[in-house]
C-alpha cells in the first residue's frame, strides 16, 4: 500500500525552478552603486540615471519574462539607489550653482561700484593684487604686477569710460553668459547693464575663483575679477 501511495507523489516536487535571471539587474545595480558618487561629483550622475532605468526595465518586465526573485530585488535596489542619488546630486548641484553665482555676482558688483566711484585701491584688491608701497625715485627694481595692472586698467577703454562718467552708475545684473575653466581658476562671464545712463550700456564682467573645480570642496576660496569688456 505504501508503495502504491508513493507512486502518486506530485510531480511538482521534481520540477526545478525555471525562472530566469536578468543580467540587466546586475548591471543596473552596479551602475547605481557607482552613481552614488554623483552626490559629490556631478559627472557620475549619468551612471545613476542609467542604473535607475535598467532597474525600472527589470521590474516592469519581470512577470512577462519570468524573471527570478533575485533579479527583482536587484532591480528594486538599482531604482532605489540610483533615483535617490541622482535626485540628491541634482538638488546639490542646483543649490551649489546658485551659491556660486551669488558669490560671482557679489565680487563683480563690488568691482563695478568701486570703479564707478574711482576707488582704485578696491579695484586693484578685487583684481587680486595687494597694496604695495610707492617705489622710490631711481629705483631700478623690475616692474611689479600691481604696477602692470595699473597701466593696463588706466588704458583699457571700458575702465576709462566708466571712471569718466558724470552720471552715477546703477548696475543691474542681466544674465550669466558663460563659464570656463582656466589655468588659474574657474571663471563666470556675467552681463551687467548700467541703468544710470541715458542709453544704458552693457558690459561683461569676468569673475574668477582660485580653484579649477566647478563644485570645489576647498574650505577657503578667493574670488577676483579678471577684467571687464563692453558688449558690442
CATH topology annotation of the largest domain:
Nuclear Transport Factor 2, Chain: A
Rg is 31 Å
| CATH class category of the largest domain | Alpha Beta
As a percent range, the share of strand residues is: 15-25%
User: Architecture of the largest domain in CATH?
Assistant: Roll
Structural class call reads: alpha+beta
According to DSSP, the number of beta strands is: 4
Summed up, the domain count is 2
| Strand order, sheet with most strands | 1-2-3-4
- How many helices? The count is 7
Major sheet details:
4 strands, antiparallel
Rounded mean pLDDT is 82
Terminus-to-terminus distance:
104 Å
Helix content: 40-55%
Shape: elongated
Order of helices and strands: HHHHHHHEEEE
Uncertain stretches of 5 or more adjacent residues = 1-9, 11-18
Give an overview in words.
This protein is α+β, with helices and mostly antiparallel strands. It has two domains: 19-94, no CATH class; 98-130 and 150-230, Nuclear Transport Factor 2, Chain: A (Roll). The chain has seven helices and four strands, in the order H-H-H-H-H-H-H-E-E-E-E. The protein has helices spanning 2-6, 23-34, 45-60, 69-116, 120-127, 145-155, 157-163; strands spanning 171-182, 185-194, 202-209, 223-230. A four-stranded antiparallel beta sheet has the order 1-2-3-4. A hairpin with a 2-residue loop joins strand 1 and strand 2 (185-194). Helix 3 runs antiparallel to helix 4 (69-116). It is elongated and about 80 Å long. It starts with a helix and ends with a strand. The model is unreliable at 1-9 and 11-18 (pLDDT under 50).
Amino acid at each position: 500500500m505504501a508503495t502504491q501511495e508513493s507512486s502518486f507523489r506530485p510531480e511538482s516536487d521534481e520540477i526545478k525552478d525555471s525562472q530566469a535571471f536578468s543580467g540587466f539587474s546586475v548591471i543596473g545595480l552596479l551602475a547605481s552603486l557607482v552613481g552614488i558618487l554623483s552626490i559629490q561629483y556631478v559627472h557620475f550622475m549619468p551612471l545613476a540615471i542609467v542604473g535607475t532605468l535598467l532597474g525600472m526595465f527589470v521590474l516592469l518586465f519581470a512577470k512577462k519574462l519570468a524573471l527570478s526573485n533575485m533579479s527583482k530585488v536587484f532591480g528594486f535596489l538599482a531604482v532605489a539607489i540610483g533615483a535617490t542619488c541622482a535626485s540628491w546630486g541634482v538638488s546639490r548641484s542646483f543649490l551649489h550653482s546658485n551659491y556660486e553665482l551669488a558669490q560671482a555676482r557679489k565680487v563683480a558688483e563690488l568691482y563695478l561700484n568701486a570703479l564707478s566711484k574711482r576707488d582704485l585701491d578696491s579695484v586693484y584688491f578685487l583684481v587680486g593684487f595687494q597694496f604695495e608701497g610707492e617705489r622710490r625715485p631711481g629705483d631700478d627694481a623690475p616692474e611689479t604686477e600691481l604696477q602692470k595692472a595699473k597701466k593696463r586698467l588706466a588704458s583699457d577703454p571700458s575702465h576709462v569710460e566708466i571712471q569718466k562718467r558724470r552720471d552715477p552708475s546703477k548696475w543691474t545684473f542681466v544674465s550669466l553668459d558663460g563659464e570656463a575653466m582656466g589655468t588659474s581658476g574657474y571663471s563666470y562671464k556675467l552681463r551687467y547693464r548700467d541703468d544710470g545712463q541715458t542709453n544704458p550700456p552693457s558690459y561683461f564682467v569676468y569673475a574668477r575663483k582660485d580653484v579649477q573645480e566647478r563644485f570645489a570642496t576647498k574650505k577657503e576660496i578667493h574670488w577676483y575679477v579678471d577684467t571687464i569688456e563692453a558688449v558690442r
